[in-house]
Amino acid sequence: MKKKAARPVTKTVKKTQKTTPLPSKTSSKAHNNWLSRYELNCAVPHLAFPVISTASNLAVISSLTQLENTQWWTPEKIREMQFKQLYQLVQHSQKTVPFYKDYPKADSPEHLAEIWQEYPVLARGDINANQTTLTSGKLLKAHGSVTTKYTSGSTGQPIGVKNTALSGVFWRAFTLRDHIWHQRNPDWKLGHIRISKTGQAVYPGVTGHGWSSERGANALIRTGPTAGLNINTPVEQQGKWLLDNDPDFLITFPSIIHRLAQHFLDKGLKANRLRQIETISEIMTEETRAICRKAFGIELVDLYSTRELGYLALQCPEHPHYHVQSEGVFLEVVNDDGSPCLPGQPGKVLVTPLHNFAMPLIRYAVGDYAVLGPPCACGRGLPVLERILGRERNRLRHPDGSYRWISISATDNGKLLAIAPIQEYQIIQNSLTELEFRIAVPEDPAPDQIRQLQEWARSALHFPATITIIAQRRLERSANGKLELFKSLID
Ligand SMILES: [Zn+2]
Predict the structure, then answer these.
(1) Residues 185 and 53 in one domain
(2) pLDDT tens readout for residues 249-280
(3) Residues with CB under 5 A from ligand 1 (ion)
């Protein structure tokens, strides 16, 4: 429905620009006229109207204007255009990147689409092992300067991916698309509880102005004040920080907002202005969505991105699933044998960033598992990711070698809280028969509670293991600030 309604508007605007009124600010199609919601910063002195942005901001505006249309293309058209771009990337790679020299050659974008699955999967370990041979010998000046982005791998060992300034242009365009999709008012006060260096943004936090890291005229649009807090702050102080700063919009990790929501419910607290929460970095669960609905009366917005690859998927403006950001990445979900998964079937996520010509990553296995969904009713042609499941190590291994993803029901979470006031928990699988159940609680549980917690874990996981309870005041987060609900240490 929306697709049909959206397309003529764009076309009419192009043909009869002066006579056709654009949708009003309050229209549900306001994202077709994204500029009407935002005030651009001016880079030229003495210019008040109309303003002119910096060159890099003009590039962002140009990309975003196209993204506003391409989201409504059919899946076939999007795929066709992706292969035109992939063809450019693969040709460049075969000529200038030693690692891809012997990959099968395609003589057209259509031919590339046919042979695509003959290309091997690039494993995480391949990147560090082939830093030099994966780097292009011909740097494209027009793509801007090259920098290396580091990210911690599954072993905690960082990997480095080289990328150009061009990726920053697309990154910013997708950031703004996310604001547009979720109708954020640029005047909102933004709060964030994120990773900070040790000793930085500690309670009572830091404040500033403008949501983006770009400052002054370098920031594309004018945005409201900000308040930030270090992710390692205890939950009581996070709660106080939230009440004192009273943001309209909060960005944080799922495990942080889950714990904070529980804290607000326990203490009967209310966030006055909070209108939207966006989660990043960890796996979102239905339980976290449910507890935030209860504590804050808000539907969570989640996003899927990685430092080394950019935005992979944004939550649909109308549904709790995600749309792949196909203008930036070619994303596949495949079985262990490399064949494509059908919608509904969990599989490995492979990502090919479309615009990284400095260190092209072709069919890179990010390490996550996900489930594709059927086309979205919102009308966008961007593929749907129904769920993001997490990493291989987030699967429970059975003694017969099979595995499954852990999902704890809302009822089971309720039962757990009836046993003890647990703020956070994590389950570690040490062997095929032993699990460690780590809990963050205000005081150590009594022997009877320990027995009940062990029974709870066996029943909630449907797994007859020996359970060791480890009670702590706070759970240890990994170096990247993440807390995994379930982690298997079995190879
Ligand atoms: Zn949608």
Answers:
(1) no
(2) 999 999 999 999 999 999 999 999 999 999 99
(3) 316, 376, 378, 380
